[in-house]
Automatic annotation (TrEMBL):
<dbReference type="Pfam" id="PF00617">
    <property type="entry name" value="RasGEF"/>
</dbReference>
<dbReference type="GO" id="GO:0005886">
    <property type="term" value="C:plasma membrane"/>
</dbReference>
<dbReference type="GO" id="GO:0005085">
    <property type="term" value="F:guanyl-nucleotide exchange factor activity"/>
</dbReference>
<feature type="domain" description="Ras-GEF">
    <location>
        <begin position="170"/>
        <end position="419"/>
    </location>
</feature>
<protein>
    <submittedName>
        <fullName>RasGEF domain family member 1C</fullName>
    </submittedName>
</protein>
<dbReference type="InterPro" id="IPR036964">
    <property type="entry name" value="RASGEF_cat_dom_sf"/>
</dbReference>
<dbReference type="InterPro" id="IPR023578">
    <property type="entry name" value="Ras_GEF_dom_sf"/>
</dbReference>
<dbReference type="InterPro" id="IPR001895">
    <property type="entry name" value="RASGEF_cat_dom"/>
</dbReference>
<dbReference type="InterPro" id="IPR008937">
    <property type="entry name" value="Ras-like_GEF"/>
</dbReference>
<keyword id="KW-0344">Guanine-nucleotide releasing factor</keyword>
<dbReference type="GO" id="GO:0007265">
    <property type="term" value="P:Ras protein signal transduction"/>
</dbReference>
């Protein structure tokens, strides 16, 4: 079914990467950071960590800037590459430039490196801004009225809008275009969006937030969830739209083949969206239509995405796709697009199931290392460039084709196959 960004409190999943010992055994014996020349750091208060990790004029005297300069350069490089949106505020850019002016005079090579870092940062910020503009345009074009399709149904006139099979009748081609859209969405999601979506301000931390609340956005993450929901409804709309049973069965078989191709590619998010759309009540109630369709492959795909055992079958398939990605020579075999809603739930419950602090008040390193591992794995997958050629007509249709609302789907479903019980008859009457 269509998804939301944050799972409801009553929905329980056990994340695949969630270690129960993280929640129940808040031990201080889990080494995480190796302190050069000393014992490993397993836990510490927030103030102590800041003192240990952040250089100051006292901690790193001017005479030792040459020694610590490369480490500062590495920190700035990784920070700007991983969290470029941290530097959208003028204040942060000013602090960044201040650091440059402090360490660059010590070595001419520093100037060149830092200038390149700043140039790359500006390019990333420009790309992020462009991506957000594209999201706004896509959302605007996708908000279409469904009245034309409803009128077409009520008057029994030919559909005004083209249907998917008239745009693309090859399942593999459509699966490729869906993969392109998925990777395009993923490319805009930064790790900071996971942090801003789930990690609330620590009550034990009395310091002021580094960034204004207005800058804490999850725009790209939310846009990706909206895309999943749109694909669900698009699939359901395409199935319910044809007036003839044979045509509806043909559309069902087509999307089953598309889902299978998505599975083979490693595009699990589109796969689940298609299955969810086909399992929506207005579609699943079309018993005569399903009776005409060849559905053996559909039940196999449903089994792969079965939620039983905390999505055990899916997680097994995901691990297989991840392993294939690591060893593949072809870019087409490196694609891994996880079922995003489940990934969100995994991260959410890992964050909610483990305290940020140990009983002694120290930061819970093991929790944040596991969070970083899961988000880091996702960041690796999202960097994959789509190896498939784009088809603009198909992409345009996927983004802009009008879709039924839930009521519209029920109305179309009842028009296709009459209500079978009193509840359906009452609903049909109300909708008409």
């Amino acid at each position: 079914m269509p998804q939301t960004v944050c799972p409801a409190a009553g929905t329980m999943f056990t994340p695949s990467g969630f270690n129960p010992h993280l929640a129940s055994t808040c031990s201080e014996a889990d080494p995480v950071i190796e302190d050069e020349g000393g014992p490993p750091i397993t836990s510490a208060s927030l103030d102590t960590l800041i003192q240990h990790l952040v250089p100051t004029t006292d901690y790193y005297p001017e005479a030792k800037v040459r020694k610590f300069g490369p480490k500062i350069l590495q920190l700035l490089t990784e920070w700007t590459e991983t969290f470029p949106t941290d530097f959208r505020e003028e204040k942060m850019v000013g602090l960044f430039k201040d650091i440059i002016h402090r360490i660059a005079p010590c070595d001419e090579a520093y100037w060149k490196t830092l200038s390149q870092v700043l140039q790359t940062l500006n390019q990333k910020l420009a790309a992020i801004a462009q991506g957000e503009e594209c999201i706004v345009k896509v959302n605007a074009s996708s908000v279409s009225s469904i009245s034309d399709k409803l009128v077409a149904f009520k008057t029994k006139s030919p559909p005004i809008q083209k249907e998917m099979l008239s745009i693309c009748n090859d399942p593999y081609t459509l699966a490729q275009q869906l993969t392109y859209i998925e990777l395009e969405h993923l490319s805009h999601i930064g790790p900071e969006e996971f942090v801003q979506a789930f990690v609330q301000k620590d009550k034990l931390d009395s310091t002021q937030p580094c960034f204004s609340e207005q800058k804490k956005k999850t725009t790209n993450l939310e846009a990706y969830v909206r895309w999943f929901n749109r694909l669900c409804y698009l699939v359901a709309t395409e199935i319910c739209m044809p007036a003839k049973k044979k045509q509806r069965a043909q559309v069902i078989e087509f999307f089953i083949d598309v889902a299978r191709e998505c599975f083979n590619i490693g595009n699990f998010n589109s796969l689940m969206a298609i299955i969810s759309g086909m399992n929506m009540s207005p579609v699943s109630r079309l018993k005569k239509t399903w009776g005409k369709a060849k559905t053996a492959k559909f039940f196999i795909l449903e089994h792969q995405m079965d939620p039983t055992g905390n999505f055990y079958n899916y997680r097994t398939a995901l691990r297989g796709a991840a392993h294939r990605s690591q060893t593949a020579n072809s870019n087409r075999e490196k694609i891994v697009i996880p079922f995003f809603s489940l990934l969100i739930k995994d991260i959410y419950f890992l964050n909610e199931g483990c305290a940020n602090r140990l009983p002694n008040g120290h930061v819970h390193f093991a929790k944040f290392v596991e969070l970083a591992r899961q988000v880091g794995e996702f960041m690796t997958w999202k960097q994959m460039e789509c190896p498939f050629e784009t088809d603009r007509s198909i992409l345009h249709y996927l983004h802009t084709a009008p879709i039924f609302s839930e009521d519209g789907l029920y109305l179309a479903s009842y028009e296709s196959e009459s209500p079978e019980n009193q509840v359906e008859k009452d609903r049909w009457k109300a909708l008409r």
